[in-house]
Amino acid sequence: MKHLLAVVLFCLFSTLPLSAPDAPEHLAFTRSQLQARDFTKTTTDVHGLSLIQQYCTATLRHCTLQVPKGTTHPPVADFVFVVTTDGLRWQEVFTGADPYLMGTIAPEQQLAYQNQYGAQTPNERRAQLMPFFWSKLAKNGQIYGNRAYGNQMNVDNNLWFSYPGYNELFSGGPDDLRIWSNAKKQNPNTNVFEYLNKQAGTRGKVAAFGSWDAFPYILNENRAEFTVNAGFENRTDGPVNAEQVRLNALQHLIPANLHTGVRPDSLTWAFAKNYLQVAHPRVTLIGLGETDEYAHLGNYAGYLDAARHFDACLADLYQFIQNDPVYRGRSAILITTDHGRGNKDGWCNHHALVEGSDAIWCAVLAPNIEAKGEVKQPMQIWQKQMAQTIAYMMGFDFQCEHSVAGPINEIFE
Ligand SMILES: [Zn+2]
Fold first, then answer.
1. Which carries the bigger pLDDT value, residue 71 or residue 67?
2. Rounded distance from Cα 164 to ligand 1 centre (Å)
3. Is the CB of residue 186 less than 8 Å from the CB of residue 217?
4. How far apart are the CA of 349 and the centre of ligand 1, in A?
């Protein structure tokens, strides 16, 4: 389905000008600006930050910060987890199940779904749909993208579907001239995971797990030199324990009832969790996909369940981190999506001609950032800022052969 869409879009695009949307103000980010950040907000000992606090509390802004070898500024966390779910709309994230679209669910399922997701107010409904998101994460982290407050996050590419979205997300900028389809072609753009995998301290400690079997191409597995496991691929590299052997076998016994090449999210999460236990990577991508699959089928019940399971995976990851002596208190979680979807009856689809499908959202949970919860200030942030945000979390300045947008400064202020 994704390939067909790409062909149709290419035909359309060959007759359309690729005008860029209003260009965001360029976020130049200098070392002096980084050092001017108010690190007095930090509460956890990360890479000696407590020492900095001890000696520089009142006059921190005027101190020369000592940064770990190989980094350009003090890291916010020692470990970063990037979790994506494909094409989950901001509407469901911030208002829960849409009462109008709930009406499209089959009559025999109505009662069960109304009971599970159909509360009176948007805030109640979103807590029913994503309970971890609207409890722990909202209390301790930051959530961006509620357009009801003018808090906007958009993709900067002009395609508004998966490969261009993930490329923008991971490489730090759109590339409409080269990344304009979902075809499985190796991505020419260096991504932030590849960059981090070559830096001191994070070298060889990067891994990516995906439901969609296009991730190895999006991340250019041939060039990337880190573990990329996606689709129904067995994991045989790195430490393989008995549970991994069972998971490798199990995934081939489950009917691929979604479109070919998309592994069930629960299995992708199980693969990732197993690897976290045995290898403790410093940078991990977990790319889930069922939200998009059910949406394209027009199955609103399945889409809601996929969103609910995505939230359950986040809760499980959070709990795993809390219980793990290596990760506890030292890990950041960045959560986002590759694209939005259409409004109302257009919700099933997303591409450049479907209004609203460039609207996305993100959330962050980290030990050394302010717990702002749902951010309600009007602002405009972009998908392309996530790559540098990931690098910034780890104390690095992501630079490569293409330009990279600056990080989302608001997270760290
Ligand atoms: Zn899609």
1. 71
2. 12
3. yes
4. 7
pLDDT tens readout for residues 3-31: 444 434 433 433 333 333 332 222 223 33
Distance 211 CA to ligand 1 centre (A): 13
Distance 138 CA to ligand 1 centre (A): 27
Mean pLDDT of 34-61: 32
Which of the pair, 147 or 42, is modelled with greater confidence? 147
Q: What is the pLDDT of residues 311-360, one digit of tens each?
A: 999 999 999 999 999 999 999 999 999 999 999 999 999 999 999 999 99
What digits encode the pLDDT tens for the residues 145-159?
999 999 999 999 999
Q: Of 323, 343, 400, 386, whose CA–CA distance to 80 is shortest?
A: 386
* pLDDT of 289 strictly over 70: yes
pTM for the predicted model, two decimal places: 0.85
CATH homologous superfamily for 2-13+76-412?
Alkaline Phosphatase, subunit A (3.40.720.10)
CA of 341 from ligand 1 middle (Å) equals 8
pLDDT-derived band at 136 (thresholds 50, 70, 90) equals very high
Cα 336 to ligand 1 centroid, rounded to whole Å: 15
Q: How far is the CA of 368 from the centre of ligand 1 (A)?
A: 34
155-176 pLDDT, tens digit each: 999 999 999 999 999 999 999 9
For the chain, domain boundaries:
2-13+76-412
Cα 338 to averaged position of ligand 1 atoms, centre (Å): 9
